[in-house]
Amino acid sequence: MHPIEIDPFTIQISESEVARLKRKLVDTRLPEHEIVAGAGDAYGPPAEWFQRLYNKWVNDFDWFVVQKHLNRHQHAIATIPDNEYDLKIHFTHTRSMRTDAIPIILIHGWPGSFYEFDRLVDNLAAPQSESDPAFHVVVPSLPGFCWSSNPPKRGWTMQDNGRLFDKLMAGLGYDSYVVQAGDWGSFVARELGSKYPRCRAIHLNFSPATEDFMPESESEKKRHERSQDWLDDHLGYAVCMRTRPHTVGYGFHDNPMGILSWVGEKYYELVSPARRSDPAWDKIILTQVSLYYFSGCIMPSMLPYYENPKHAEFAKLFMIEENLVKVPMAYTSFLYDSRPGNKRSAKLTGNLVFYNGMSIALDRTFSE
């Protein structure tokens, strides 16, 4: 295997690009009225939410403060040889000072990015208690996201990304590692945990049950209802992206409010309702949306939906013999995730050694 090349990288959006974003926002005309009187959030996030986020993006959001914050971690671009291609993968790498630290790779999904884990990295690398494990933390951007290369060909799947990320961890000098992932990242984690010896354990926060999996307890019933509601009423975005990513992508590529609408909706729906008006959560949304806009990744970020199985096929894919997770697997099911699963269904997909069903959101506010 050819060695990977690693070059330092700094997020450095020019003043002219930031000013251009501001001009485009100021020149935007939002709808004067909600779609119908009393629409609330039945048709998507309510009109008040769009107006609040728009006003904050125009008047209060300081990209250069955010950029400085993001650059506190060490960023790099790895050039990874893969068959006939050389792919560039953007990632952050934060090494712990602890000699007993465990290498971990954190893998995002859509509409996430490396920033999804921003509030976790420092605590993982330097836990407050010596009795807690410490980690060397690697957070890559999936191909097609932020500053990673686009997938090089049609038919590029999450399994291909697993191969890349195993090479990345080896290239960083790690003979073994563990994984945390959700959403599309969970597909990569399962690939690593089922086929790559360097991967020693995985933790997931996404493991949906099959649609015909009938609940047997009150906890399972709540998760089943949430999952079914997602399949019935919230999958329009996925249908568009798995059928016409070019059409949607060209419409949103240079359209900041379009990106906020498309991406921000998920941050409205996939959080505890109590957090939807949290100013710190608003800033997190605007940071994520700004990363998509400045890196120009909104269109290629849609490719996972086109190239991988449909939502209704997820659980069946996980239960195929060759995809069963062989290493120790942990799963935390959050009620406000898109398709919360349960312990019984997760056990069908691999070597489940730990399960935690979170019935409510963590009782804390979001902070930097």
TrEMBL record:
Molecular functions per Gene Ontology: epoxide hydrolase activity
Keyword presence, Hydrolase: yes
Pfam families: EHN
Gene3D superfamilies linked: alpha/beta hydrolase
Protein origin, superkingdom: Eukaryota
Domain Epoxide hydrolase N-terminal, first and last residues per copy: 6-117
UniProt cross-references to SUPFAM superfamilies, sorted A to Z: alpha/beta-Hydrolases (SSF53474)
Any one biological process term the GO annotation gives: epoxide metabolic process
Keywords annotated in UniProt: Hydrolase
UniProt family annotation: Belongs to the peptidase S33 family.
Protein name (database record): Epoxide hydrolase N-terminal domain-containing protein
Upper classification of the organism: Eukaryota, Fungi, Dikarya, Ascomycota, Pezizomycotina
